[in-house]
């Protein structure tokens, strides 16, 4: 059997591309319009240089940290991602991998596995909601997460329902009826390894979102839940404060890109923010979060925990984000590619790649701990920061 281990997130992506049906891979790539923000998320990290030392490096390096009261073995969290027919074990595999590597699992309210099963696999789980539906239904989701034992809540606000892509959007099945399966058969048959994984599991890719309703109620289809969200009047900052009150525990507001809004998140009672552009899936033209991070961390970093997500593919990216003021980063596509390539072991592989990259960078930069990182460790081009 070929060696399933991969040495970089880029190799995991190549394997995912070879293994997944075109539309499933396309759904992971996502992005909007001309893909400018999605590209900038990765490209911006490459603009930042590092300043290694050559002697006097530290023989030991500490990368443990804490976000929203959760101790973590390294400054990386699993960012929540919605239902994806990537692997039959889906979010359970991701949660197990995160637990095995001591990192927090972020579970989307559009995920395909029930929160109770995910928390059984990783008690360090933050549940993510959108402002979708009326207040009663939002409370239902919050209460379910509380009863299940979620140790944090993520409220994601940056979404503008942009559905056009210059490279064409993937065809996501409206249902899993026989006729639909037959329609998708040609692209599926081209990917026998993926098909075999599903056949062996005895399941078919589910497009239901079980965490959208109360436990025991039937799960709506992804598109029905999406329709509810689309039809909901967008949240105000008062609504954010209301969520903080209802949840009454560690809360992260995800999707912040402006200093004034970072301040509003502080005032609303949030514990943390993620500087994010939804992986380049919100308005195209939104700068990479790493460009926005320094100003936001400078403004509110002493009042709220600041994390960032978008474009993180290697340990050096994590180190750069921490040097610019983030307490930790969240990853999206990187673990989805690992999951596609090799299930739970693939997600562990991605986390190991990041961990060893963080360690090498701490070594090279002469640090004994992530807490010693600062902008002085980087070469920051003029006009980098937005
Ligand atoms: C396929 C896909 C689905 C996503 N679904 C969600 C979601 O349900 N909830 C959420 O808050 N963010 C979602 N995101 C955004 C991620 O949490 C994260 O912000 C983004 O992926 C980070 O960028 P990266 O993929 O470059 O790491 C999704 C991203 C992708 C690529």
Please give a structural write-up.
This protein has 386 residues and is of the alpha/beta class. Helix content is 44%, strand content 12%. The protein contains 14 helices and twelve strands. The strands form three sheets. An eight-stranded parallel β-sheet has the order 4-11-10-9-8-7-6-5. Strand 5, helix 5 and strand 6 form a beta-alpha-beta unit. The radius of gyration is 20 Å and the shape is globular. The structure holds flavin mononucleotide (FMN). The site of flavin mononucleotide has 26 residues, from helix 2 and helix 14.
User: Could you tell me how far the N terminus lies from the C terminus, measured between alpha carbons in angstroms?
Assistant: 48 Å
Question: Class by helix and strand content?
Answer: alpha/beta
Number of E strands: 12
| Shape, principal axes of CA atoms | globular
SSE order, as H and E?
HHHEEEEHEHEHEHHHHEHEHEHEHE
The overall average pLDDT, rounded, is: 96
Please outline the helices and strands:
Blueprint: H1 9-19, H2 22-29, H3 36-47, E1 49-50, E2 65-67, E3 70-72, E4 76-78, H4 90-100, E5 105-108, H5 115-121, E6 125-130, H6 135-148, E7 152-156, H7 178-189, H8 192-201, H9 222-230, H10 237-247, E8 251-256, H11 259-267, E9 272-275, H12 289-300, E10 305-309, H13 315-323, E11 328-331, H14 333-365, E12 378-379
Parallel strand pairs: 4-11, 5-6, 6-7, 7-8, 8-9, 9-10, 10-11
Antiparallel strand pairs: 1-12, 2-3
Helix pairs in contact: 1-14, 4-5, 4-14, 11-12, 13-14
Residues 27-28, 30, 41, 79-82, 84, 108, 110, 128, 156, 254, 276, 278-279, 281, 309-312, 331-334 line the site of flavin mononucleotide (FMN).
């Amino acid at each position: 059997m070929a060696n399933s281990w991969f040495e970089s997130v880029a190799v995991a992506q190549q394997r995912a591309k070879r293994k997944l049906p075109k539309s499933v891979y396309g759904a992971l790539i996502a992005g909007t319009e001309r893909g400018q923000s999605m590209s900038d998320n990765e490209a911006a990290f490459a603009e930042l240089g590092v300043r290694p030392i050559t002697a006097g490096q530290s023989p030991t390096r500490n990368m443990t940290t804490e976000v929203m009261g959760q101790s973590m073995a390294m400054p990386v969290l699993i960012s929540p991602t919605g239902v994806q027919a990537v692997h039959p074990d889906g979010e359970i595999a991701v949660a197990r991998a995160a637990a095995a590597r001591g990192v927090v699992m972020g579970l989307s309210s559009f995920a395909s596995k029930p929160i109770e099963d995910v928390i059984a696999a990783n008690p360090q789980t933050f549940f993510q909601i959108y402002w979708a539906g009326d207040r009663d239904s939002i409370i239902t989701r919050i209460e379910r997460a509380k009863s299940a034992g979620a140790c944090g809540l993520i409220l994601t606000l940056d979404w503008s329902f942009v559905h056009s892509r210059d490279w064409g959007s993937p065809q996501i099945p409206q249902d899993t009826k026989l006729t639909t399966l037959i329609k998708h058969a040609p692209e599926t048959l081209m990917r026998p390894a993926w098909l075999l994984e599903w056949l062996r599991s005895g399941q078919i890719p589910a497009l239901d979102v079980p965490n959208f309703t109360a436990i025991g109620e039937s799960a709506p289809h992804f598109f029905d839940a999406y329709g509810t969200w689309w039809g909901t009047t967008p949240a105000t900052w008062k609504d954010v404060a209301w969520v903080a009150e209802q949840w009454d525990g560690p809360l992260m507001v995800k999707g912040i890109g402006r200093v004034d809004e970072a301040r509003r998140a502080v005032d609303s009672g949030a514990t943390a923010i993620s500087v994010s552009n939804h992986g380049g899936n919100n308005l195209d033209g939104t700068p990479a979060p790493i460009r926005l991070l320094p100003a936001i961390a400078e403004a509110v970093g002493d009042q709220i925990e600041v994390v960032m997500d978008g474009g993180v593919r290697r340990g050096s990216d994590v180190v750069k984000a921490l040097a610019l003021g983030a307490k930790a980063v969240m990853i999206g596509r990187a673990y989805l590619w690992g999951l596609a390539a090799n299930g739970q072991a693939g997600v562990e592989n991605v986390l190991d790649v990041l961990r060893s990259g963080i360690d090498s960078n701490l070594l090279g930069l002469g640090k004994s701990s992530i807490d010693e990182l600062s902008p002085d460790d980087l070469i920051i081009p003029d006009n980098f920061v937005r």
